[in-house]
Amino acid sequence: MHPLSKNENPFMPLPNVTESISIELDKINRYPESFPESLRNNLSLKLEIPSEMIMIGAGSAGIALTSLQALSKPNFKIAYSWRNFEAYPLISNIVGAHISTIPLRTDGTQDLEALINKSKQTDVIILCNPHNPTGEFIQSDDLYSFLTSIPNTTFIILDEAYIEYVTDFTPPDSIHWIEKFPNLIVIRSFSKAYGLAGMRIGYGIAHPDIVSKINSSQLPFSVNSLSNAAALASLKATEKIMHRVRYIASERQRISSYLHNQGWNVLHSQTNFLWIHEPKKTMLLEKLLKNENIVAKVYPGEGVRITLGSKDDNDAIVRALKIKF
């Protein structure tokens, strides 16, 4: 079986990560830090920003939810592109928000102009970059222009869960734009490039006043000691993590080029997955993939998202989709 539907990292945890977890297990009878200051301080050094700008939570989705809960008010309105990360409607409904969805363009890209127009009547815009499920990446100049067009009374949650996989372009320096855009909240994850999906830990970066407001709505001990230890250890293994990222990027190029040559419409991805933009062939794609025991994420009538995994996983994709159009 090739489980390629959840955008998981195919690599086992690094030895220093498992060692850190093992050490922490001996202290599991003790509470973790009330708030994970050690992780905030380490991220502060890595990102070169004050620790007061950093918040820690249960994955990027957890950070997004906590942010929305802190910002929520009567007649709360949220807008985002759709199709998108499926947690967005869940967390929006949890806070009782009125949701507006902006359809993707026919080429699968996000309609930034439509989002800008909608921002004048909404409280929060959620923007996923790189985008899930298409893998689309909004380059720095376009993203900066987008931010300048959003009213300063509207918050922007910029979801950068896949930012480490951006290798074909220069990633935006979004966290250092917060001084100019105090309504910007950047959320990131340890689940993808760092391979800690089972640990449920992520972080957000925002203006210190916003972080203080969001943190005040969090319960103490909300990040468990094992997750905290795993994240700290991962930050100390950046080069090994990036070596794994480069492998995924090379496989992304290999599989994408092959599928293009076979006639499949594959969008240019800057993530650890590929989006096959074939609205009329989703059922055919599902059947072909199942023939090779591949479980992908199928969006009927829209497209298919396939996670890039081990070489064995990716070779199975090649075998499954060898049919030429």
UniProtKB/TrEMBL annotation:
CDD domains referenced in this protein's UniProt entry, alphabetically: AAT_like
Enzyme Commission number: 2.6.1.-
Domain Aminotransferase class I/classII large: 4-321
Superkingdom of origin organism: Bacteria
Pfam families: Aminotran_1_2
Keyword Transferase: yes
PROSITE patterns registered for this protein in UniProt: AA_TRANSFER_CLASS_1
Broad enzyme group: transferase
Cofactor(s) the protein requires to work: pyridoxal 5'-phosphate
GO molecular function: pyridoxal phosphate binding; transaminase activity
Keywords of the record: Aminotransferase, Pyridoxal phosphate, Transferase
InterPro entries: Aminotransferase_I/II_large, HistidinolP_aminotransfase, NHTrfase_class1_PyrdxlP-BS, PyrdxlP-dep_Trfase, PyrdxlP-dep_Trfase_major, PyrdxlP-dep_Trfase_small
Similarity-based family: Belongs to the class-II pyridoxal-phosphate-dependent aminotransferase family. Histidinol-phosphate aminotransferase subfamily. Belongs to the class-I pyridoxal-phosphate-dependent aminotransferase family.
UniProt xrefs under PANTHER family: HISTIDINOL-PHOSPHATE AMINOTRANSFERASE (PTHR43643:SF3), HISTIDINOL-PHOSPHATE AMINOTRANSFERASE 2 (PTHR43643)
Protein name: Aminotransferase
Organism annotation: Photorhabdus khanii subsp. guanajuatensis
